[in-house]
Amino acid sequence: MRILILGGTRFLGRATAQLAVEQGHEVTCAARGVSGVAPAGVRFVPVDRDDPQALAQLAGESFDAVIDVTRQISHARHALAALADHVGHWSFVSTISVYADNTTPGQTATDAPVLPPAPADVDGPVGPDHRWYGECKVSIERLVREWMGVDRSFICRAGLIVGAEDPSDRFPYWVRRLSAGGEVLAPGTPSDRVQFVDVADLAGWLLHAADTRLGGTYDGVGPAMSRADLLNGVAAGLGVADPVLTWVDQEFLLAHDVREWSGERALPLWVRLPESAGLLDRDAGPARDAGLAVRPLPDTVRATASWMRAHPADVRQGGLDPADEAAILREWKAVRDR
Ligand SMILES: NC(=O)c1ccc[n+]([C@@H]2O[C@H](COP(=O)([O-])OP(=O)(O)OC[C@H]3O[C@@H](n4cnc5c(N)ncnc54)[C@H](OP(=O)(O)O)[C@@H]3O)[C@@H](O)[C@H]2O)c1
Questions:
Q1: Ligand 1: which residue has its CA nearest to atom 44?
Q2: What distance in Å separates the CA atoms of residue 192 and residue 281, rounded to the nearest whole number?
Q3: Which residues are CB-neighbours of 286 under 8 A, at least 6 positions away?
Q4: DSSP of 70-96
Q5: Percent helix, strand, coil in the chain (nearest 5)?
Q6: What's the CATH fold of domain 170-194+224-329?
Q7: How far is the CA of 307 from the centre of ligand 1 (A)?
Q8: Predicted pLDDT of residue 259
């Protein structure tokens, strides 16, 4: 295939470009080159999509497939206007942040309610909390369907993406923490559900979707699993036998200013229950049936750990620091064993 990746200089876009080259496709990546570099073997076209005419230079070419990762509505609109007429299939990487209901587990993409589109004066996510992120993705999904038609557009609403080159502190926190050994603070209960998708698996599915002209809207998620299986799976991937997990009650953590999801004092892949019980527990069946092949968790862990070892400066250092973790564990055990 002749594939155009709008992006391709970091994480998912880059993994997709890399895999496409390995599969023998003719790959063009269009981006600024600010976030990183596109992989070897692609044709890199420098463009700044803030310029509405940026993609006009590619409008004379035809592509079997476009894969776009943008969060900016105008970027999508201009790309579709320039390219839709001579593209066979369009994949848009959206997000599960489009959903309006994060509480109900087991929801399916085709019937779950989504947020309204972004207001007219919003073009992209705003500020450190990425306000309007989900709404902007909803707006872009609509544009893609309008320009390409439902049958030629693949809307992939990715869940938490993990693996090598992860720019976030989320999955890498657990890889770092389990590899450090000792008593590990495990949040919530062993049976809490967690869900994510390996970046290489998602890349493979995007290319499969392009190749088979898959149309429609799907969640790009692997099967949900228990948090105990997650933490034991991370340990298994690292070759750590019998990790010592101490499960700490959610309310105790919240009362001690331990935060959910990501950032300073946060425990990643932990969200408040029952309010967020739907966030990490969506129906993975449609994606599996449409060709998303999921590798075993220890393989994802090994790929992440080996990237972390090779590129320590690129690994974001977030989460609970060891001294805080030890102090909270001491206080928790004093309360628990009283
Ligand atoms: N990470 C997760 O857990 C997660 C979860 C759900 C959904 N998602 C979605 O998955 C996608 C991930 O994409 P990704 O990993 O490839 O990373 P990304 O951070 O979304 O990358 C954005 C890409 O767009 C390019 N870009 C940004 N501004 C540009 C501009 N003005 N002109 C041209 N290119 C521009 C960047 O390249 P340059 O900066 O080099 O130009 C980069 O290649 C995103 O759509 C995200 O919303 C992510």
A1: 69
A2: 9
A3: 108, 109, 110, 218, 219
A4: ---HHHHHHHHHHHGGGEEEEEEEEEG
A5: 40, 20, 40
A6: UDP-galactose 4-epimerase; domain 1 (3.90.25)
A7: 19
A8: 96
- Model pLDDT for residues 281-328, shown as the tens digit of each residue: 999 999 999 999 999 999 999 999 999 999 999 999 889 999 999 999
Half-sphere exposure of 169 (CA within 13 A, CB side): 18
Check whether 338 has a pLDDT greater than 90.
no
State the average pLDDT over residues 203-209: 98
* Number of residues that make up the chain: 338
- The segment(s) of the chain belonging to CATH 3.90.25 are 170-194+224-329
Q: What pLDDT, on a 0 to 100 scale, did the predictor assign at position 321?
A: 94
Q: Where do you find CATH 3.40.50.720 in the chain?
A: 2-163+195-220
CATH superfamily membership of 2-163+195-220: NAD(P)-binding Rossmann-like Domain (3.40.50.720)
The answer to whether the bond into 274 is cis (omega within 30° of 0) is yes
Question: What's the pLDDT tens digit per position in 62-116?
Answer: 999 999 999 999 999 999 999 999 999 999 999 999 999 999 999 999 999 999 9
List pocket residues of ligand 1, CB cut-off 6 Å. Answer: 7-13, 31-35, 47-50, 69, 71, 93, 95, 158, 160-161
Q: Say which residue the tokens 């070419």 belong to.
A: 61
